[in-house]
Amino acid sequence: MRLKFWILLMLGGGILIEILIGINGHRTIRRLVITNNWITHTHVILEKAEQIDTRLTHIDNDLRGHILSGNPYFLADFNRNARELIDQSKDLNDFAKTADQQRRIRELNRKLEHKLMLGRKLFIQAQIENGTTRLDSGRIYLDQTYEIRSLLVQIQEDEQTSLAHRVGESERSANEALLSIIIGTLVAVVIILGAVYLLIRLLQSRTSLNLELQANEKRLREILDAVPAAVAVYDEQGKVYYTNRVTRTLLKQYASFQSYDDLFKSLPVYQFPTGIPYPFEKRPYLKARRGQAAQIDDLELRIGDERTLLLSSAVPIFDLEQNLQYVVSSYVDITDRLLSHSRLNEAKEMAEKAALMKENFLANMSHEIRTPLNSIIGFTNLLETTPLTAEQNEYLKAVNTASRNLLTIVNDILDISKIEAGMLQFEKIPFSIISLVQSIKIMLQPAAYDKQLELDVQLDQKLPPVVLGDPTRLTQILLNLASNAIKFTEKGRIEITIRCKQIEDQQVWVALSVKDSGIGIAADVLPHIFERFRQESSFTTRQYGGSGLGLNIVNSLVDMQGGRIEVESTPGLGSLFTVEIPYEIAEPTSLEDFGSYHSTPYEGLRKISVLVVEDNPMNQKLATAVLGRMGYSAEIAENGVKALKKLREKSYDLILMDIQMPEMDGYETTRQIRNVLHIEVPIVAMTAHALVGEREHCLKVGMNDFISKPFQMSDLYKVVRKQLQVQTPAFVPATTEMNSPMNTMKINLDYLHEVTGGDHESMADLLAVFLEETPVQLKRMSEALQQQDIVEVGKIAHALKSPVQMIGAVEVVPAFIKLQELAAKNGDLFTVQSIVKDVIQRMETLLPMVEEARKEFLPTV
């Protein structure tokens, strides 16, 4: 293509040069003509000047002859020459072109006129006295001739100079024209010869290109024959232009078709899987003819007993003017792919059935495990509020711990199920990180104290008071990490640090770190620590237990909230888990207080009636006991049918609805309540089914809230208060806080009764020792506090804790534990003072009760 361009360019250059030569020749000829005209003009002026000079000689001779002879013939000849001289002078004036020529010729004409006037005067003058006078007059007349001739000489010299210049200019123009013609012709010849050379090369390349095209065409045919797909090319008329080997093999006896129409008239095709003839207008070839590429995958070809499913495609090919030139059709055998697809569908159906079986298994497992757990945890919570011996209390705590550990495993499995399904929901409510962490510290303190581990919690004061997020998931993350730290640490300390890493655009990045001095994690295990069911070794699993799901759930919870988690660990020295989670900053006034509602004033306790729809007798008894302890009256309905009957007869303030029941489940019962009875009473789902989408399903059918079994009494209490929005009796948790009213102090002497075998005298003696030693220890504690000796306060608290536990005054035990913890880390003096003051007040309230008990065991006189 470039060679052709250069050929055209060179030919065009040669033609252009010839045109320029012609233009230059034309201009040169014009210059020569002009120059020659000037030369002719110069010759005419010179000729006229010569004629004037000759006529001057004639009139001078005529005047001298007349003066000397007086012959009248000379006068006639003078007049004739004078007329011709005037005519020649006028002709010369007509040829004057330049200003200098015109000036000199005007001066010449003036002198000629003066000379002729003087000559006529000399011819006609009669008073000339003698010949001398005539001669003098003739001399003046001749002097004027000299002046005129001098002027003519100047004119001639100027014209001779101009003539020489114009002749030279004419010769130069002629030479330049000749040179330009020669050079231009040579250049044009060279260019034309170069164009001829390039043309020859182009023809040679075209020849080699044709040979290469033929070779490429042959190679292309070989390649298309090697393609494992049938390819057929049709021209714009629909005639067959090319078919490859696979096409000929596929069509067998129909391979010698001449056009598309001939082929599919003799070989009909069908639509898979219906088996009807394939609609002509839907075939890819027809769409390609209209300029649109098309593809189908349900074309069935039948040749004899053989059936082949084809993937058919057609693509239009256009020329430079966008006119259809070819249609390329291709056919791929996808019969095996169809079989694979069928197998995949079967495998998919099997996987879906397996997933459904898994979900049903988890649902049943959840219900079957949570139902007894609900009873176990509920009744242990109730038992903790009754008088127990120390041994019974220890056994009860063991049962409670085991049941809660089992509940944790069940919850982990269900959380994994929710995460896998992408249905884990996150709340976005205001909460205080500081309050949440302080609550978690209280929850973790007993476990840490049992292993004599120091639990240190540090809170950054720069943390916003209130943030928006999911406090439940944050609690889950922290409890999981901190519980692991306590579990895998035999001695040392656990450090929990909560700090504000970055605040920007009403968003705070909260960094939470949990550091322990436990067994650590091996370097080869560390990259896989967040994998499901992964623990460091089988020894770890046997010794420490656990499902191996906790860290995987933590990692998923952090990631789903847009955070990140990192771990550093050295075997034998401990581990450091760091979590960073972003939260929106909220206004402090937005923090919801579930502890008070002002919609209904409190003037004595309003009787709250609750309908418990539950089929399990243990759960019925537990719910009745818990609600009764809260101050509510409860009625039981064993299933949905009985619940609807009771609702028709009586109104209730709240309904606790189980989901899985005989005759009518909780979902249908709720629909009947909302759509048939049209009752808007709050309904709280209370179910052991805590799987993916369960909460959303409950709310969708018309329930107001959701609580999983086994439930904590505090959780149930909050849900009930939230739904009723009335002021109700304060709920006292199983573990009495240090700021409980003094009238809640009580003693339980079952342990003393057991260890003394029921000997009242021995029991009285032991109580006497308590009454004697306790005031002394309290006094020492007060003195140590005055001296700001916190370590000593901790020692005295340790000494007092065991006697207090022996007499069953468990309400004050957490205070002694707190004092020991503060002493171990040299805690805040103000906090210690507050706790010591509370302990002394409690113990002073307790001592009279012990004295009364001692008196009862004294022998009567």
Q: Class of the largest domain, according to the CATH hierarchy?
A: Mainly Alpha
Helical fraction equals 55-70%
Instruction: Report the radius of gyration as a whole number of Å.
Output: 64 Å
| Sheet having the most strands | 7 strands, mixed
Molecular shape: elongated
CATH architecture tag of the largest domain: Up-down Bundle
Query: How far apart are the termini?
Result: 136 Å
Going by CATH, the homologous superfamily of the largest domain would be Alpha-catenin/vinculin-like
Number of helices: 23
Strand content: 5-15%
Number of strands: 18
The CATH topology of the largest domain is what? Four Helix Bundle (Hemerythrin (Met), subunit A)
Structural class: alpha/beta
**Rounded mean pLDDT score:** 75
Q: What is the count of distinct domains?
A: 5
The parts where pLDDT drops under 50 for at least 5 residues are: 126-133, 536-547, 590-605, 727-743
Defining key terms:
5 domains; Heat Shock Protein 90; Four Helix Bundle (Hemerythrin (Met), subunit A); 7-stranded mixed sheet; alpha/beta; 6-stranded antiparallel sheet; Beta-Lactamase; elongated; 861 residues
Short recap of the structure:
By secondary structure, this protein is an alpha/beta fold. The chain contains 23 helices and 18 strands.
3D architecture notes:
The chain is an alpha/beta fold and 861 residues long. The chain has 5 domains: 2-203, Alpha-catenin/vinculin-like (Four Helix Bundle (Hemerythrin (Met), subunit A), Up-down Bundle); 228-333, 2-Layer Sandwich (Beta-Lactamase), CATH 3.30.450.20; 433-590, Heat Shock Protein 90, CATH 3.30.565.10; 609-724, Response regulator (Rossmann fold), CATH 3.40.50.2300; 742-857, Four Helix Bundle (Hemerythrin (Met), subunit A) (Up-down Bundle). Strands 7, 8, 9, 10, 11, 12 and 13 form a 7-stranded mixed beta sheet that branches. A 6-stranded antiparallel beta sheet has the order 2-1-6-5-4-3. Strand 4 (294-303) and strand 5 (306-318) form a beta hairpin. Helix 15 (640-649) runs parallel beside helix 16 (666-675). The longest helix has 96 residues, at 131-226. The radius of gyration is 64 Å and the shape is elongated. It is found in: Cell membrane. The modification 4-aspartylphosphate is found at residue 658.
